[in-house]
Amino acid sequence: MTLVILEAALHDKIWGGTALKDFHFPIKGDHVGEAWAIAAHKNGESIIKDGPFAGQTLTQLWQDNPNLFGGHEANEAFPLLIKILDAHQDLSIQVHPNDTQSREKYGKTECWYILDATPNAKIYYGHYAQSRDELKAMVEKEDWDHMLRTVPVKKGDFFYVPAGTFHALGAGIVALETQQSSDTTYRFYDFDRVDATTGQKRDLQIADALDVTTVPHHDPVLKQTTTIVDQTIVTRLVTSVKFTVEKLSVRGLSMFNLAHHYELFTVIDGAGRVNETAVKKGDSFILFDDEAISYALDGDMTIIKSFVTKDDNPDQRF
């Protein structure tokens, strides 16, 4: 079984801070907002740390070794992107397009696992408009108090954010984001902030955002399940059309079988071993089924795992 550990691409953001240093990322500034932990996108690339593929980007590995991933078309893009976000301030109120609406290869359906949150932290999640005309009128009037729906959050919460959902992380939240590999965001509102570098407000894409927002908003109902594998509690957080996400609470030696050609992992707390390889909080890695399908997790750690959802199991979707 091949295992590759990845080095994240770090991105400064107007709303970022320094919380990502707690995940052992080499933070050099005080506005680091995103660590693209598992990324094969033109706007951010993970680098393989060691082993026979050391120094390669994930895109290179994907393009040059399609057999590792179970095979794919020559022009097909790596489908998922895993980030850790530090929302030191509120993110912009935004929405993402679906596959049909996107100008990229994919739309942007995503989800958040809340890694940390200050007291009274909240997310912006959905809106109160009942029609597109009402939504447009609220945006034009900047009637954010009546339009923005907020939800209080705490460490350990999980939210599924399908394309078309009006949303933003609020200040004081650190989250792991699992998403389609897209960087397309349409902003409704950015709290009138001015970028210190440019001296200008960030661009808004209100017309595009209105076109792709789901109206009215409905919270998805998730079919979450919990199982025990040896010394690990496995919580399936979501199974959607685009991806499946699980939380693995490892408290000792546990044996697993890789059910897909490749699966993505990020250690969000603690430390341990994957087979004979040591991993710690902040490490992200990919396992491949090229030599064997079984692998061992050991230690005291919590991991978020994701993979592309199989089309042959629609009954497990929310």
Structural commentary:
This protein starts with a strand and ends in an 11-residue tail after the last strand. It is globular, with a radius of gyration of 19 Å. The protein is built from four helices and 23 strands. The protein folds into two domains: about 1-10 and about 45-75 and about 220-318, Jelly Rolls; about 90-210, Jelly Rolls (Sandwich). The protein has helices at about 60-65, 130-140, 145, 205-210; strands spanning about 5, 10-15, 30-40, 40, 45, 45-50, 80-85, 95, 110-115, 120-125, 150, 160, 165-170, 175-180, 185-190, 225-230, 230-240, 245-250, 255, 260-275, 275-280, 285-290, 295-305. The strands form five sheets. Strands 1, 6, 16, 17, 18, 19, 20, 21, 22 and 23 form a ten-stranded antiparallel beta sheet that branches. A six-stranded antiparallel beta sheet has the order 2-3-7-14-9-12, with no helix packed on it. A three-stranded antiparallel beta sheet has the order 11-10-13. Strand 16 (about 225-230) and strand 17 form a beta hairpin. It has about 325 residues and is mainly beta. About 10% of the residues lie in helices and about 45% in strands.
